[in-house]
């Protein structure tokens, strides 16, 4: 079949065909793992969303992805490793830029990545630490170099010490349960001597094997002696603890009974008038029980229970009462991955849902609404194949009102069509006029939804739309008599366009 016939068939598919289909909610999940802005399918393919990608979009040329590490430097940043143990960095700090992939030279068998100020530290499965610098644009500079003086590391965390200027502080949990810290810059290391048999660290707190929690100062008087940094003390109110969490301002602990404890800062005001109110004594939060996991998100506290319920409480106010109300947010959740301002949750049926700030499409639902106060479903990762070949998409397939929409340019580019777009008039034009073919043209006005095929107006039941400058058209089932066939392979979440 000639290109002209296929092109006209797909235009007909998009505009005229009588029956509409889309990805059903009962499609089999192929998600092997996920993070706050990415997922890995069972075939090893990586899908990203956020910034230029408003829904999960397949990454081309990077098969066999094994693991992801998110929010390394900026929210949305990603590091991932391949089956060959190589590591790659994806900076996502500029919404106007397309996705870039930077090889992290010198890194193999990556276990964790952390950044602070001018440095990025990487931990390998063998327990070695590697160091790289951050560039002026807050991206990672490669290659990584071995950081000498510290080894057999199981985990790393970082924070700023105030003395009164901010100083970069790195904490290392070794495999033998000891805890170490850097001295000057990253030139020397010393043990935090009283700490032994430690199983977890979070900022300036540590969890001991016996369930006790220990801490050391991170704020000092300007006349404080350096030795005060090692003034470790037990947090007496906490015992039988199994999990600790911390962000820059606050801390959480979950005990063996599934009770949730909080200490640190609550918040009042906004922007330049933001004030943090600190409480050093842990408060038992009685409004939620049987807690499995907990998270700080923006100015909220989320708790996931063993029953799969997610509850939310506000951190607004001068003090957090032990009786702070927790509101049921969603049910049937098996796990949560949190970004600084949003969460992605996986339900018992493996479907992903998002909640929180969506300014940069962090929730992967196909729009840039700033905030969602109720959970919304992340769009399914849908593959498009043209004659058995995957079609590279600038943005993934979007489903709305039970119907599928595909990016105009992605498919027609594969057919050799010329595509133009006028930003002022919001009119897209597609032309195919190669030698030996009859001319085929498509014109779409995204302001009025008026659509013309070969100069003739076509009535659209489902109008096209634009998301972040990407034009979308509805995908319809095409009759075999038109010369091209489109199938929805539900068990594979795949749209297949084939020609005879």
UniProtKB/TrEMBL annotation:
This is Putative E3 ubiquitin-protein ligase. Its EC number is 6.3.2.-. Keywords: Signal. Residues 387-497 form the Copper amine oxidase-like N-terminal domain. SUPFAM superfamilies: Copper amine oxidase, domain N, RCC1/BLIP-II. Residues 1-22 form the signal peptide. It comes from the Bacteria. Gene3D superfamilies: Copper amine oxidase-like, N-terminal domain, Regulator of chromosome condensation 1/beta-lactamase-inhibitor protein II. InterPro entries: Cu_amine_oxidase-like_N (IPR012854), Mao_N_sf (IPR036582), Ran_GTPase-activating (IPR051553), RCC1/BLIP-II (IPR009091).
């Amino acid at each position: 079949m000639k290109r002209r016939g296929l092109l006209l068939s797909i235009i007909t598919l998009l505009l005229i065909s009588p029956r509409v289909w889309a990805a059903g909610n009962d499609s089999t999940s192929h998600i092997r793992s996920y993070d706050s802005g990415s997922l890995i399918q069972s075939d090893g393919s990586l899908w990203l969303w956020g910034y230029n990608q408003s829904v999960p979009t397949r990454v081309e040329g990077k098969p066999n992805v094994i693991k992801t590490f998110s929010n390394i430097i900026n929210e949305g940043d990603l590091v991932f490793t391949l089956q060959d143990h190589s590591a790659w960095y994806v900076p996502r700090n500029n919404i106007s830029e397309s996705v870039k992939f930077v090889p992290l030279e010198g890194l193999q068998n990556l276990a964790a990545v952390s950044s602070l100020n001018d440095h990025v530290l990487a931990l390998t499965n063998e327990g070695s630490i590697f160091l790289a610098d951050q560039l002026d644009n807050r991206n990672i500079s490669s290659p990584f170099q071995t950081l000498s003086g510290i080894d057999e590391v199981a985990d790393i965390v970082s924070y700023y010490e105030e003395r009164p200027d901010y100083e970069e502080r790195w904490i290392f949990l070794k495999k033998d349960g000891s805890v170490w810290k850097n001295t000057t810059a990253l030139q020397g290391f010393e043990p935090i001597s009283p700490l032994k048999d430690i199983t977890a660290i979070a900022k300036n707190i540590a969890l001991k094997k016996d369930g006790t929690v220990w801490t050391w100062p991170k704020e000092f008087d300007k006349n404080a002696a350096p030795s005060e940094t090692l003034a470790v003390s037990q947090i007496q109110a906490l015992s039988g603890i199994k999990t600790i969490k911390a962000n820059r301002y606050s801390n959480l602990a979950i005990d063996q009974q599934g009770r949730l404890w909080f200490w640190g800062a609550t918040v009042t005001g906004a922007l330049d008038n933001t004030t943090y109110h600190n409480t050093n004594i842990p408060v038992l939060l009685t409004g939620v029980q049987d807690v499995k996991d907990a998270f700080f998100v923006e100015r909220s506290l989320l708790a996931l229970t063993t029953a799969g319920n997610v509850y939310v409480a506000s951190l607004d106010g001068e003090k957090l009462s032990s009786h702070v109300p927790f509101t049921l947010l969603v049910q049937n959740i098996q796990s949560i991955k949190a970004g600084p301002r949003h969460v992605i949750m996986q339900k018992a049926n493996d479907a992903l849902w998002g909640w929180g700030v969506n300014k940069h499409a962090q929730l992967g639902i196909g729009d840039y609404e700033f905030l969602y106060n109720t959970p919304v479903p992340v769009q399914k990762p849908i593959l498009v194949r043209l004659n058995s070949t995957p079609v590279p998409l600038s943005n993934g397939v979007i489903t709305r009102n039970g119907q599928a929409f595909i990016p105009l340019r992605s498919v027609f580019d594969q057919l050799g069509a010329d595509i133009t777009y006028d930003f002022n008039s919001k009119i897209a034009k597609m032309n195919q006029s190669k030698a030996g073919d009859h001319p085929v043209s498509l014109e779409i006005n995204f302001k009025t939804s008026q659509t013309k095929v070969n100069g003739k107006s076509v009535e659209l039941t489902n109008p096209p739309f634009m998301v972040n400058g990407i034009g979308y058209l509805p995908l319809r089932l095409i009759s075999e008599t038109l010369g091209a066939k489109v199938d929805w392979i539900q068990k594979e979440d795949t749209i297949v366009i084939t020609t005879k």
